[in-house]
Design goal:
309 residues, mainly beta, six-stranded mixed barrel, six-stranded mixed beta barrel, 5 helices, 22 strands, globular
């Protein structure tokens, strides 16, 4: 079965698209595990428990920008989780699924130029910090084989498990701080869609819509879509050709007049060929929160705001 999802994730070489109509489902403890039944369940969160306000969860930066925390899946403890707001659906590494003897179905996804096959399984519980999710349908795959950026990860935690909370990424103290109340932070509004968080910025006075991705270090723009948004697009300086994740070709260029929130400046960006029109419609690229160069970044899914300082 072909799914049209997206996971910009840290899997820069991997852009998947899941259907917009798919929604998280609460699953019974003994959920069906054959392929046909799993495909009907869909992907996403199961039953959530949240314990504690202002709870801190230490993290470390892998590759200088990937947020990695310790977590637990079933009976497996001290696992490495990468938190990725660019992933709509969470993924568990196949070695963890094997040790837990998880039954799984199979689904097919695609990126720009290749089809990929994933397993899909009902995971009894996933825990990190104060968050516990039970009976979660997750994708299953060999993360090291799919992405060089995930070689040290046991799971990628996506929006299906993150969007139930408000949290702050504090780069100064290397802590995630979870908030279960309105802590009064006002920020730039973003839109939550099934494929991720969409932040609108301005490029030379024109609006540009980007997925907010904790799993990407820079700003990646789809060149054809950007030029549609900004017909008289201007760049300055020399353009360099680069490779992302050993597969994706891009151009590195300096764009003058880029406004992110109240700040307007010239920014170095990556330009790459846009995906097919049916993939990520209305989206012009990806912005990594590392590109904000902030001390703290606040995600408030309930209010639909993103703020940083």
């Amino acid at each position: 079965m072909k799914l049209s999802v997206v996971m910009t994730a840290l899997i820069r070489t991997l852009l998947i698209a899941f259907p917009l109509e798919a929604r998280p489902a609460s699953l019974p403890q003994q959920a069906p595990t054959d392929e046909a039944s799993l495909s009907q369940i869909g992907q996403g969160e199961g039953n959530f428990e949240i314990d504690g306000s202002g709870t801190k969860l230490p993290f470390r930066l892998s590759k200088g920008y990937l947020i990695m925390v310790e977590g637990q899946i079933g009976t497996r403890t001290h696992l490495n989780f990468i938190l990725d707001t660019g992933a709509s659906t969470s993924i568990v590494d196949s070695k963890i699924a094997d040790t837990l003897k998880l039954n799984r179905g199979q689904i097919e996804s695609f990126n720009f130029d290749r089809n990929l096959t994933w397993g899909q399984a009902v995971v009894p519980d996933v825990r990190f910090g104060p968050v516990t999710a039970k009976n979660v349908v997750m994708l299953v795959g060999n993360l090291a084989a799919y992405s060089e950026f995930a070689r040290d990860a046991d799971a990628i935690i996506g929006l299906d498990l993150l969007s139930s909370s408000r949290f702050t990424v504090d780069y100064r103290t290397k802590n995630l701080v979870f908030h279960w109340f309105d802590h009064g932070t006002k920020g730039t509004h973003y839109e939550v869609i099934s494929n991720g968080l969409v932040l609108e910025i301005e490029v030379q006075g024109r609006p540009v819509r980007l997925i907010v991705d904790t799993g990407f270090p820079k700003i990646l723009l789809f060149q054809e879509r950007l030029q549609e948004r900004v017909p008289e697009l201007r760049t300055t300086g020399e353009i360099f050709y680069v490779t992302i994740g050993n597969r994706m070709q891009a151009k590195q260029a300096m764009l003058p007049g880029v406004s992110i929130g109240p700040t307007r400046r010239d920014l170095s960006v990556l330009l790459t060929k846009a995906p097919a029109p049916e993939m990520l419609p209305g989206i012009d690229g990806v912005i990594g929160i590392a590109a904000l160069h902030a001390r703290r970044v606040n995600f408030d899914f309930a209010a639909g705001t993103l703020s940083w300082e």
